[in-house]
Amino acid sequence: MKRDNLLIVLAIILLPAIVIGQDGELWFGQPDGGPLVFRIDSDESVPVWFKCNPDLSAAAAHIPLSSDDRFISERPGGELFEPFVNENPPEGFDKGWDSAYLMEPMPHQDRNGFTSQGALGFSDLVGKSNVPLNCEQQCKIIEFKMCTAGDDSLRGHTYDVFIEGFNPRSKGIRLSDTMGVRTYEIEAHFSQVHFLYPGDINADFKIDNSDLELLDNYLKGEAKFPWPELRGDCNNDGVIDKADITFLSDYLNNNGPPPK
Ligand SMILES: [Ca+2]
Ligand SMILES: [Ca+2]
Q1: What percent of the chain has pLDDT over 90?
Q2: pLDDT tens string 89-133
Q3: How high does pLDDT run on average in the chain?
């Protein structure tokens, strides 16, 4: 084969690996990409999952998440997990990265109506080796806390609430090595948010006796109702049982508050 032809063949073989190759993946929300279920006017959280090639050892991370202000009224902080924080590190490692924290919420400067909040972390800056950001399996690394808007019209609808957050330096997600010389390519996935409509058991956007009947049949094991199942949790105690029938019945007889 002529040298030129050989180079073309090599380029064709190598190109897909270069274009498609990602160093890691992030999931904002459900690890399978499915929708999150939020109640309105309540505290909710968005987990962030990470998975990467086994040879990636990022030592600086900025992972920002933006959310649409129509749906999210407040960002009361959040929590960091391994490897940012690690209470039981492997022998010879520190308890987590040298510095890791959640940043204050800030207006998203690229897109009006969005607020951004990030998690920032550095390792290997001082002392002995830190636990690397090296997750071959999906692992939960952050949980952003947020408070949903108290807007009744959201109930029952599913929206794109999240986009990649704003990062003043890189304008997005950034992972790099200790020296900041190499930046890793990270693919991000964002879950949609479904706003729960408790009491609307048959998902027709109103609450009436047909919902009561369906919930009754469901608890007898004689019927199913549309996702998400929590729409049957009328009294907001996390389980679906006869107390929800009583709660819904009282509401429909003007004898109690609406399901929430
Ligand atoms: Ca209904
Ligand atoms: Ca319940």
Answers
A1: 60
A2: 767 666 788 888 999 998 887 788 999 999 988 887 665 566 677
A3: 87
Contact 38/67 with Cβ under 8 angstroms? no
Phi, psi of 217, deg, nearest 5: -65, -35
DSSP-assigned letter for residue 15: H
* Tokens of residue 153, six digits: 């019209």
- What does the pLDDT look like over 184-211, one tens digit per residue? 999 999 999 999 999 999 999 999 999 9
Q: Alpha-carbon distance 31 to 36, whole Å? A: 10
What is the CA(126)–ligand 2 centre distance, in A?
Answer: 50
67, 161 Cβ separation under 8 angstroms: yes
Closest CA to 139 of 66, 62, 52, 53: 52
Q: What is the pTM of this model?
A: 0.85
Query: What angle separates helix 209-219 from helix 242-252, to the nearest 10 degrees?
Result: 170
User: 246 CA to middle of ligand 2, Å?
Assistant: 10
Are 15 and 176 within 8 A, CB to CB?
no
Domains (range + CATH), the chain: 23-195 (2.60.40.680), 198-260 (1.10.1330.10)
Q: Please give the Cα distance from 84 to 17 (Å, whole number).
A: 30
Confidence of residue 1 (pLDDT cuts 50, 70, 90): low
Among all ligands shown, which has an atom nearest to the Cα of 238?
A: 2
Ligand closest to CA 240: 2
H or E segment to which residue 243 belongs: helix 242-252
Ranges assigned E (strand) in 166-259: 174-176, 183-184, 186-190, 193-195
Cα–Cα distance measured from residue 161 to residue 36, given in angstroms and rounded to the nearest whole number: 10
d(CA 242, CA 248): 10
Ligand minimally distant from the alpha carbon of residue 259? 2
